[in-house]
């Protein structure tokens, strides 16, 4: 073990603003721990929102390759099946049915893309995973506390960005707050 602080720590007294020296307290850390771990125990909001925007980009970027993979997999599987054009499948011509199934495979790839993108992103950022998860919980508490009640929406006027998915910076967060307030005023006090 080696000491982090080389000089004595001073504390402020509750009764006066004059520092009281303390020679008995010495903060130490083990040599096996890194100093950067202690320094990076906090993630600021701009850093978190930049990380969140990066994660969203990864999720969206993985949608295209996963969709194409689903399309090619479905086409190769259903294209290689022997078909009898005289026999219908679920009352549909076999070629149309296999085409629908191929499109469904592409849709499945489209739905799996964000999940796979998030998994790859989390694997590449696993060191800061605990910090990001803690900020995620705090961020979603902010969102649920400040968003508009969903019962106020109508089919013609949905709530803008209900889950706050498009927030990627402090500016966008402030804009989201303004949009929520504007929608709340419009829903509660409709214009005549």
From TrEMBL:
GO terms for cellular component: PAM complex, Tim23 associated import motor. GO terms for biological process: protein import into mitochondrial matrix. Signal peptide: none annotated. Keywords: Membrane, Mitochondrion, Mitochondrion inner membrane, Protein transport, Transit peptide, Translocation, Transmembrane, Transmembrane helix, Transport. PANTHER family: PRESEQUENCE TRANSLOCATED-ASSOCIATED MOTOR SUBUNIT PAM17, MITOCHONDRIAL. Component of the PAM complex, a complex required for the translocation of transit peptide-containing proteins from the inner membrane into the mitochondrial matrix in an ATP-dependent manner. This is Presequence translocated-associated motor subunit PAM17.
């Amino acid at each position: 073990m080696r000491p982090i602080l080389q000089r004595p720590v001073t504390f402020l007294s509750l009764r006066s603003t004059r520092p009281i020296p303390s020679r008995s307290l010495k903060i130490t850390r083990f040599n096996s721990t890194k100093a950067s771990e202690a320094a990076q125990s906090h993630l600021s909001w701009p850093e978190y929102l930049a990380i969140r925007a990066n994660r969203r980009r990864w999720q969206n970027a993985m949608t295209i390759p996963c969709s194409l993979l689903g399309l090619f997999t479905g086409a190769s599987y259903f294209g290689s099946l022997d078909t009898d054009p005289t026999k219908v499948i679920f009352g549909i011509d076999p070629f149309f049915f296999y085409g629908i199934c191929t499109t469904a495979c592409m849709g499945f790839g489209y739905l799996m893309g964000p999940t796979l993108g998030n998994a790859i992103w989390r694997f590449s950022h696993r060191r800061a995973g605990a910090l990001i998860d803690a900020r995620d919980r705090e961020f979603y508490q902010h969102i649920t506390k400040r968003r508009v009640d969903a019962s106020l929406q109508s089919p013609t006027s949905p709530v803008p960005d209900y889950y706050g998915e498009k927030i990627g910076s402090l500016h966008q967060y402030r804009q989201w707050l303004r949009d929520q307030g504007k929608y709340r005023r419009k829903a509660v006090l409709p214009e005549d």
